[in-house]
Each structure stands twice: as C-alpha cells, then as structure tokens.
Amino acid sequence: MGRDSEAGQGDMRRSRIRVAACASVLLVAGLVAAGCGGSADDANAGGVPTLGFMTWRDQTGLDEKNFRMCEKQGGGKYRIASVPMGPSVDQAREQLTRRLAAGDSSIDMINLDVVWTAEFADANWIIDLSKRVEPIKDQYVGAALDSTYYKKKYWAIPVGTNAALLYYRSDLVKQAPKTWEEMAADIKTVHETTPDINGFVFQGASYEGGSVDATEFLLGAGAKILDPSGKHVQVADGDGAEYAFGWLHDLMKDGGAPKVVTTFMEEDSRLAFQKGDAVFMRNWPYAWALMNQDKASKVKGKFDIAPLPGFDGRSQASVLGGQNYGIAATSKHPDLAWEAMMCLSSAPVQRIKAVKKGEMPTLKALYTDGSLDKDIPFLDVLAKGLETGVNRPTTPYYNDATIVIYQAYNDVLNGRLSPKDAVKQMQHKLQAAVDGKAEI
Amino acid sequence: MRSPFAVLDRLDERRLGLVLVIPAIVLMLIVAAYPVLSAVWMSLHRYNVKVPQDYAFIGFSNYARILASRTWWTAMETTVGFAVLSVTCEFFLGLVMALVMNRALGKATGAVRVAVLVPWATITVVTALAWKWIFTPTFTFGALNWVMGLFAEESCVLCGRWTSILAMVFADTWKTAPFIALLLLAGLQSIDGEMYEAADVDGASKWTQFTRITVPALKPAILVALLFRSLDSLRMFDLAYVMTNGANDTKTTSMLSYDYLIRRLDMGVGSAMSVLVFVTVLIVAFIFVRVLGAAPEGADKVKKPKRARRSAELESVTDAMGRAQIA
Description:
The complex is a heterodimer. Chain A starts with a helix and ends in a 6-residue tail after the last helix. In chain A, helix 2 links the parallel strand 1 and strand 2 (79-85). In chain A, 49% of the residues are buried. Chain A folds into two domains: 45-162 and 322-388, Periplasmic binding protein-like II (D-Maltodextrin-Binding Protein, domain 2, 3-Layer(aba) Sandwich); 163-319 and 392-434, Periplasmic binding protein-like II (D-Maltodextrin-Binding Protein, domain 2). Chain A has helices spanning 3-36, 62-73, 89-101, 117-122, 130-133, 142-146, 180-193, 208-220, 240-253, 266-274, 286-293, 334-344, 347-357, 365-368, 379-387, 398-414, 419-434, and strands spanning 50-56, 79-85, 109-113, 149-150, 153-154, 157-163, 165-169, 198-201, 278-283, 303-307, 318-327, 389-390. In chain A, 45% of the residues lie in helices and 14% in strands. Chain A contains 17 helices and twelve strands. Chain B starts with 5 loop residues before the first helix and ends with a helix. Chain B has one domain (69-326): MetI-like fold (Orthogonal Bundle), CATH 1.10.3720. Chain B has helices at residues 6-9, 13-43, 61-67, 70-104, 109-116, 118-121, 124-135, 145-148, 161-189, 193-201, 206-234, 238-243, 253-263, 267-292, 306-326, and strands at residues 45-46, 56-57. Chain B is mainly alpha-helical. The interface between A and B is large, with 45 and 42 residues.
C-alpha cells in the first residue's frame, strides 16, 4: 500500500472523528439546552404586567370573557393570563402546590378551594389580606367568609359558594324527607311498588368528595370532628359518629343504596339519578340545570329539590364547597392582583357565573335583590342551606386528615370496617394527622 | 490555526473510542444516575417542601417508619399480587398468540403485528378509564352500553379488594399480552425450521418438539418478556390510580410514594419509598438474570469459565432485545 493512500485514509479518519466529536458535543449541549430552555420571562411583554391566575380549566369560555372585561375596566393597567388546573380538586391541589413550593413567581392570583386556606397560609404561599378584606367583609355570606379565615386573619375573598341539596323523585315521593331516617323509610315504601329502582345515591368513593359527604353525615348526627383550636380530635366524643356510620352501614345492608355507590363521585351519582335509577340523590346545585337540560335525562320535570336532611332529633349540616381568590406570596403585583380579583368577584360576574355555571354567589345582596330568582328557582332552598352551612375542619394538615376521613367512610360503606371500629380508627389516625405525625 | 480536535488524532483506536463516548456517559450520569442518587440522599433526611427550614439528616429513620407500617406491606401485597397474576396471564396468553401467529398467518403477519399492537399503543390512562366504565355498569356512555351488558347490573367489580385487583389484571393483560406475543413471535421466527424436520424424521411428537426445541430456543426471548413485564408491573401506578384511586387497599407501592412525594410534598418519606420500589425491582431483575437466565441447553456440558458463561447469557438477552426492537 502506497503512502499517498494511507495519508488519504488518515485524513478521512480525522475528519470523521471531528464530525463525530462535534456531533456528540452538540447533542449533549442541545439536550441540556432543551431541558433548561423556555424559562425566559415573558411576563412583561409590552410593558403591561401580566397577572398569572391559577384557576380551573374553563370550557365554557366564560372566564376568558370576564378576564377581558376586567382588563378593560382596569384601563389596560394589567393583563390576566390563566394557568389552568384540574380537573379534580385533588389534582388541582397537586399542580398548585408543586408550583408554589418551587416558588414560581409567574403566579399572582390563585383560585383556592375552601379547604386549602389553612394549609396554604401556614406554608406562606398566600399573603394576609385582612387589611383589604376587613372594610368589605359584611357584604359576604358569613359561612363563605369563614372559610377564608385562619389564625385570626383573612387570607382570601370568597367568590363562589355551594351547599349540597337533596334531589328527590317527585313522581315517586310525595314530600321531601326532613330527616335521613325518614328518607330510609321512604325508600322502603317505594321499593314495595318499584323494587328495581335504587334508593339513595351520593358520593361514596375514596376521595375528597367522600370526605364532604362523610362530614355532613357525622356533623348531622351531632358529632364533632375538631375542637375550635384545630388541635384536638373529638370524633369519638358522644355517640354521634357511631350513629351516623351505623345508619350508613344499615342503609347499605338493607339495600337502601346500591353497592356501587362506594365508587361514586358527583358525576356518577348524577348520571345514575338522571337515568331514572335512583329515588334520592345528594349533590351540588350544578346537577339541577344539567338534569333539566340534558337530552339523555329521563327525569326532566320528575324531580324536585330540598335542603339536605339531618338526623332525627340530632342535628343538620350542609358542608360548604366553593372557591376563594388569594394572592400568591411570590406575586410582584399584589395591588393589581387585588384590583383584578375585586373585578372578577364583583356582583355582575357572580351573577352570570351563578346562572351559567351553577357557582353560587357569595355576595349577600344577590340572594335578596331578586335578580337571580328567575334563573335559579331554588335560590331560597340554597340560601337556607347556606345558613346552616359549615366548613370542613380547619387545619394545616387537612390533606392528611381528609384521607383518614374518606378511607374510614369508604370502609364503612363497603362493610370492611364496623361503625364502632371505624370511629375508633378515625379518632386515633386523625389525631396523629393534626399533630403533623400522620401514620404511613 | 490548530484545530481543537487535533489532539484526538494522536490517540489510538481504543482510547479514541473511550473519548468519543464520554459525552454519552456524561448524559447518562445526568439523566439516570443523578436522580437515583439524589433520591437516595433525600430519603435519609426529614424534608417536607412545605416547611423547607425543617431539614435534617435522620439516617434510616424514614425506612424504619415505612417498613414498620401496615399500609406499606398492604401496598406491597397488592403490588406483588398484581404483578404475579398479570405477568402469568399475559405470558401464557401471549405465548399462545405467538404460536398461532407463527403457524397460521404466513404472509399476513406484518398487518397482524400492527393490528395486535393497538391495545399496547393506547395510553394506559385511557384504557384504564375505559375499563373502569366497563366494570361499573351504572355508567351510561352510549357506545359502551353493549359491552356493559357483559356484566350484571348488580355486580360491583371495583367494590372489593381482590375483585378490583383482578379487574386491573384483566385490563393489563388486555393491553400487554400482544406485546409479549410479538416478542415471542420474533423468537419463534428465528428458530431454524430444519430442527423440526429432523425431529419429525426421528419420530418426535409435537409436544416433544415444543418442549425440546421451541422452549429452549425461545428461552432468551421468554426471559426478556418476563423481565420487562415483571419490572413494569411492579412499578404499576396508572391503572390503580384511575380505576380505584387506591380504595379498598388497592394502593400500589408506587401510588404510596406518589402520595408522599406529590400530594404531601414529603420528599424524605416519599424518596425512601421510591428507593424501596427501586430495590424491589432490582432484586427481581437480579433473580431473573441469575436464576432463570441459565445458559442454553448443552452449553453447561462444556464447562465454560463463569465469566464467559455470564457474557454468553447477556449476549443472548441483548440479542433477543434487539430482535424485539426489530419486530
């Protein structure tokens, strides 16, 4: 082999090496850049501050309309960009806490579920709004306002509230039951003539909604969950909790509710009820419009609503759902955020959201000024529910506590735990949870 | 001007090769080793992101807490139960499918291969949701009504612990049996047909041919299929998360670590759980390669040194993996 060709091969080898070396270095650099890219701060494009609003994904487009309306009202001082979260409460909380824990400064306003106040305030994720809320607090429904209150401070403003209702088949039951015991008796009566229909559907699954139902049953039987300090669990005090769980146990055993209710969330109950498969349903107001409008609904005009029953001679409780707006601790524009929040929770916005999305207003005036009577015929029933409305336990460890509550409740419904054992277990595990020592 | 790469020209082939893989190794360390090591490190601390100031080294306390808890062992039972049942079902179903495809389809295999992969290519969360609806007859979603007829209106599959686990096994088998079938089919097609002809001449029965020729020749593919599926199912999260959300003690170990890492932001306990899942998977992988991955028949007679035998095993495994990819 001649020298020339060897030299030629050497050249080729060299250039191949260079290409390979360049390529591998570029590849790594490219991957690293891709991983870190996209963090450029585009929040200040055009000089107008953009307020990041972490809120529920909205398919109706109504939220976007309100954002634009408020931007105009603010005279172009700010823009609102929503960062959607959801779809379930549990998932929304995960998405939110991940950002807040990482100190994401692109979030200014947060749509808070009513049960998050204590946890978020304790973690210093939202700022104290007492000075701003104090002067206007009398405008709000008391129980809704309470959900923003923690450690003697207001951490948010209430923008939407909700109390559950009892839906019943007015073609099968003449009069709405006043107590849960009456309802169970009504189911037995209906079963005598119509044995195929399910009795009562509600939220029995092992998730946050289960805790809401469970809390209603427990408080309705006169039980207490936490003392006012939020430090001592009182579930096992008195016989309330055992009575409520005992009633649920019997309801399931006697066929008053289908076994599958232990997997039900809100929509599952609604679908069963609107299919004509159940006599009673516990659900939020949103179901009313859907079951009257949905083409597939078989119960149009055949159902009515009533305030949630209580237990005979004991008590009655509607656990409030709803939303509050708070300001993120990392926000660079708290004043603008407040201004935007006030606009987004003003009477006209609350009114249209009540009609279009079933989010009930928090402004007292809207319940009495008659402007909603035509669109929401059950407004008086709802107002009654709000009067007796209670909030879920207030503790920064709510997330640990709720798991204990919905698991015990689900286990009772499934027959895996006797009512007595469930109460004992709840007392013990809840205390550990609010002590910040939740068991694994 | 001297090129910055000129130094490479002076290296011999072997060193040059090493230099050239350095970027890839660095990348591997960044994306694979760093997260694992940092999880191990975090698992030795008390660290909740909600209270970052309360950060302390606590040794193995997190592990002690986890291993002493009933919840963890219940989750372990669920996970292992699911893994054993699903891998068994998938394997036998997949094997039958592969044998049928190998024999019966001839030229149509290409199209069938693609068709068979559809369940496997569907996102698990989507299939999990579909199965959840199918197993819960009370849901009414038009198109699925006819499927729901399969299950009695009164039955509640997702209401009990083991019925829920069986429902997940069912959903998982539906999804991954075709994947195993394809892995095994690739193995089957590489078997030399002359071996069967020779066996026919010798008067061996079909069953003998299957146990003496097919199974030994298929061993590397079987090993890879079982290994992949076992490791996957021991890390199972999505099916349980969607179908039961952990109700009735159906939380898997991965779900439990998710609970701590993502929902409670407890990096200490969560990381310790992840490390335990990792170790479980590692042990299973080790058992597979070590115990089941014995060299092909006949090879033991020629007493190869241990190292050579191990590399032969590895070779057959990587070989099968390569073939699976081609398939």
